[in-house]
């Protein structure tokens, strides 16, 4: 939890409430929607795409340090 406003890496909107995940900000709303999302839910595809890009960027950052 933080008092600062960050751009959520899923919805890309500035949010005050959320958690930091490996240096990226995930807002409370997306965190909850991610938990509730499943195939067939319209936002599920979006979450998959954004989280895939997120993990890929982490992997690239780790590779760059080697
Ligand atoms: Zn969000």
Architecture overview:
The chain has 66 residues and is of the alpha+beta class. The chain has one domain (6-65). Helix content is 50%, strand content 18%. It contains two helices and four strands; from the N terminus they run ββββαα. The chain has helices spanning 28-36, 42-65; strands at residues 6-7, 14-15, 18-21, 24-27. A two-stranded antiparallel sheet has the order 1-2. Strands 3-4 form a two-stranded antiparallel ribbon. Strand 1 (6-7) and strand 2 form a beta hairpin. The longest helix has 24 residues, at 42-65. The radius of gyration is 13 Å and the shape is flat. The N and C termini lie far apart (31 Å). The model has no long low-confidence stretch (mean pLDDT 83). The chain binds zinc ion. Zinc ion is lined by residues 8, 10-11, 15, 27, 29-30.
Q: Using DSSP, what is the number of strands?
A: 4
**Averaging pLDDT over every residue, what do you get?**
83
In angstroms, what separates the terminal alpha carbons?
A: 31 Å
Query: What is the beta-strand fraction?
Result: 15-25%
Overall radius of gyration: 13 Å
The helix/strand class is: alpha+beta
Largest sheet: 2 strands, antiparallel
> Looking across the biggest beta sheet, what order are the strands in?
1-2
- Low-confidence parts, pLDDT < 50 over ≥5 residues? none
How many individual helices? 2
The molecules bound to the chains, other than polymers, are: zinc ion
Q: Percent helix among the residues? A: 40-55%
Q: Specify the oligomeric state.
A: single chain
Q: H/E element string? A: EEEEHH
Can you tell me the number of structural domains? Answer: 1
Q: What's the shape? A: flat
